[in-house]
Structure formats: structure tokens, C-alpha cells
Design goal:
Two copies of one chain form a homodimer. By secondary structure, chain A is mainly α. Chain A has ten helices and no strands.
Chain lengths: ~200, ~200
DNA sequence: CTATTTTTATATCGAGTACTATACAAATAC
DNA sequence: GTATTTGTATAGTACTCGATATAAAAATAG
């Protein structure tokens, strides 16, 4: 579905939009929405401010594009984990394990962009946008959990989100992968016990 | 130990430093270190910028004073909870329950200032400062846990911190107290199971 | 009283913010 | 070719940021 736009009429764009988005993604992930200015974004992307605004509208829309790209590229592990396992508690345990890996995979971009990219952010639109993406993740979890434990699915999804946020924040605070793994295992054990007690 | 400074020599200060700190605490708690400017701080405190700088040094030192005041006033529940219970797992369960209450007690200042006051913050000193206060909380947890489970105390303390950060973030995202309670109970169950398995 | 000390208010500082008006460059349409 | 469309570059908008220089105001010390 790559709409490559055969060729426009005027002067062709000289920079690669996708590479630009990748650079913006790195910066936003490292320091959050407020932490990166348009000046730095355009400098690192190798373009001037007018080119940036022409291509992406404004800083907030650029952030939205970055979030969409991030989810498209980096949330596969979450979706697939929810699909591949049989019981919810095992799936969530695997989820925490993989989150620990993903959140510490790149030392320059620890944690999750969706969970931490606009925390304590001043821009209302950026906050809302980020919340929308977090909500989508919650819905994904909720739907999967509801397949087995419908009545408590919303609360259990919130539990998983809370753990993921905690893991992401811990990763950003420098906690190692192995320690994150251990933390995730305990959190998963709690869920297993809770589900067993419901059964 | 209130060094009241009998009376200086020059013109006496016209504003109440402690009331000013309380106002700054509210603002920092609502929107984080970067979210509040010196202009707004001084306006809300009812003083001018030079008075603020004369009294507190700079924005970062003001933040430090606020954090110290916050811990002094609002961390009693944590310390007392760690002391009053017999077994660690029960104490931590109570801790999560009280955290759920405290983090949602004031709708205008959800979550914890220490855990979320300088997350994604641009000012390096403010970040470091905040990390120092978080570290102190971790040490408190670690010492208490080590009384019963010395070898795994650091990891278990990190687990508790991760849950608290998750609960604080959830509170800031609008999750209700009752839901936070439920989440905390599951997290506490995980810890109980883990401790039981250790023998 | 005068001299000293400290706090106050006014009015800014330079740097940084997101964003853009204008002019020029490079492509296509005809 | 000329006209049109679009991207780029320079330079700048108005605003906010944290922090201050200056001087007037209000207290004490002697």
C-alpha cells in the first residue's frame, strides 16, 4: 500500500520523508515531545524548517506521523504475542518478557515512545494524541483478555498497561534487561494467581 | 530545629517562604518541572522574579526545596507502612493500597511528585535531583525487604518501585482509585507468590 | 541622624520556542 | 520556448524561557 505518487508537477522533494521520520522518531523517543525543538529536528533531518513544515504541517503532526510509524514498525511483538499463545496469563507473561527486551534493546532509546513520549508534556494536542495511541494498546489488550475473562477484562488490561508503563519508566531510569525480566515475571505471577482465583 | 533567624538586619521579607513553597509544590506536581515557568511560579506565589531568586537561588534549587518539603510532609504513609506490618508481603500490599489512595486523593495533583515530577525533563540537574529522591525511596524499600529476604532485596525493591511508578502514571492518566486498588492487589499477589516460592 | 544591609519593583537581558513571509531554484504542463 | 507548480534557503516574526542589573524602599547598627 505504498502510495508512491507517480511524480508531482513542481520541483521534486530532495530529502527522504521516511528517513526524516526515522530521525525524528529517535529524537522524540530519547527526549520526549517537549524535549526536542523544531530547530534540532530540522537540523538532524538535514532539512530546513520550511521544508519540515511543508512536508509535515507542524511539530504535532510530525509527532503523529512518528507515532504511527513507530506503532507500525515496533508493535508487532505485542500483537503477535497476544495471538500466538493459548491462555491469557501465559500470553501476558510472554508480553512482559518481550517488553523487557524491547525496552532495553537500544540504549539510546529506552522504554516505549507511546508510553513515555509525551508524559508531562505541555502541548495539549500532543498529549491527546499520545493518549489515543495508548488507548489503542489498552483496547488490544482488553479484547484479547475478554476472550477468556470478559467481565474483568478492562481492569486486567489496565493492570497490564500499568506494568508496561512501569517497565518502560524503569528502562528509562537505567534498569537492566535482566532485572526488568525478573520484575515482569513477578507481575505476571500476580496476574496468574488472580485469574486462577476467578476461575 | 526551625532556625527562625531572630531578625536579620535589612528590610524584612514580605512573603511567607513556606506558603510560597506550597504553591510551587502544587504547580510542579500538576505539570512537572519543565511545565511550570518562573514567571508563573512568581505570579502564583505573589512575588516578583527577583524576590524568588533572592529567596531560592534559582528554579532548580526551588524544585529541590519543594521536593524536600514534599517528602517531609507526604511520605509519612510510606515510612510508617514499612514499619507497622510484620511480614514484607503484607506491608507491600498495604503500601500499594495506600499509594492508590494518596495518588488519587487530590484530583489537581494526581500521582507522586517524586516519581513523576521530572520525567522527560530537559534540565539535567532537575533530573538528577529527582533521581536522588527516587533512589532514597528505593533504599528505604530495600532496607525493609532485606530484613526478611536479603539476597533478593534490591530486585524486589525495584519491583515495588516499578509498580509505584506505574500506579502514579496511571493516576495521572485518570485511572480511578478503586481501579488502582485492584491493580495494586494483583501486583501484591505476585510479590507474595514470589516470596513464598523463595521459601 | 547617617551608614549599612536586605528586599522590593521595574525593566530588561540573551537565548530559545514554534512558525512563516519572501525570494529563488527546479521540476512539469502546454 | 513560457507558464505553472512545488521545494528550498534566508531571514525574520512574535513569544516565552530562566535569570539580572538597577535603583527605590524599608529595616537595623551605631
Amino acid at each position: 500500500m505504498t502510495t508512491k505518487k507517480i511524480r508531482g508537477r513542481g520541483r521534486p522533494r530532495e530529502f527522504d520523508v521516511d528517513k526524516g521520520l526515522a530521525i525524528a522518531q529517535q529524537l522524540f523517543h530519547q527526549r520526549g515531545f517537549d524535549g526536542v525543538g523544531v530547530a534540532e529536528l530540522s537540523r538532524e533531518m538535514g532539512i530546513t524548517a520550511p521544508s519540515l513544515y511543508s512536508a509535515f504541517g507542524n511539530k504535532c503532526e510530525l509527532f503523529e506521523r512518528v507515532l504511527a510509524k513507530y506503532v507500525e514498525e515496533k508493535s508487532g511483538w505485542l500483537v503477535s504475542t497476544l495471538q500466538e499463545e493459548n491462555s491469557v496469563d501465559v500470553a501476558i507473561a510472554t508480553l512482559f518478557k518481550r517488553a523487557s527486551e524491547v525496552y532495553t534493546a537500544d540504549v539510546n532509546q529506552p522504554g516505549c515512545l507511546v508510553l513515555d513520549g509525551a508524559r508531562n508534556c505541555n502541548d495539549a494536542k500532543a498529549c491527546e494524541l499520545n493518549a489515543k495511541f495508548r488507548q489503542a494498546t489498552w483496547q488490544l489488550l482488553c479484547d484479547r483478555i475478554a476472550e477468556e475473562h470478559a467481565p474483568k477484562a478492562p481492569m486486567l488490561a489496565s493492570y497490564v498497561m500499568t506494568i508496561l508503563v512501569g517497565l518502560s519508566a524503569a528502562a528509562r531510569d537505567g534498569v537492566s534487561e535482566s532485572e526488568l525480566q525478573a520484575i515482569g515475571e513477578i507481575a505476571a505471577a500476580g496476574l496468574s494467581v488472580h485469574i486462577a482465583q476467578m476461575g
